[in-house]
């Protein structure tokens, strides 16, 4: 979670070497099918938002390999889209209010009253 959330900061601070290393680590280790319940809000702003902003800012990194069609394509953008797709069931409730948590492996939305905010995200990364 923190690594994804820090990607854009690495670019803004000018640490392109660590940015490239962090992107490789994120792309190799983030699992979009982990069997965990995650906060829709936190996942949206930190994971999806972090990936989208890092994708857009990666165009400023000298020597960064960008796919044909960038900024409309790229591995960080695809990962953001996959994570966002896992959050969609939280909004398909038939109500104005969305569900607070989503089980990203099964796409099931849940209303959970008490949960550790960090623990589910740890299982999204390969050890």
From TrEMBL:
Highest rank taxon of the organism: Eukaryota
SUPFAM superfamilies to which the protein is assigned, alphabetical: Seven-hairpin glycosidases (SSF48225)
Protein keywords: Endoplasmic reticulum, Glycoprotein
GO molecular function per UniProt: calcium ion binding; mannosyl-oligosaccharide 1,2-alpha-mannosidase activity
InterPro entries, sorted: 6hp_glycosidase-like_sf, EDEM1/2/3, Glyco_hydro_47, Seven-hairpin_glycosidases
Pfam assignment, any one: Glyco_hydro_47
BP GO terms, sorted: carbohydrate metabolic process; endoplasmic reticulum mannose trimming
Recorded GO CC terms: endoplasmic reticulum quality control compartment; membrane
Subcellular location as annotated: Endoplasmic reticulum
Main location, first listed in the record: endoplasmic reticulum
Family statement drawn from the similarity comment of this UniProt entry: Belongs to the glycosyl hydrolase 47 family.
Protein name, UniProt field: Alpha-1,2-Mannosidase
Organism: Heligmosomoides polygyrus (Parasitic roundworm)
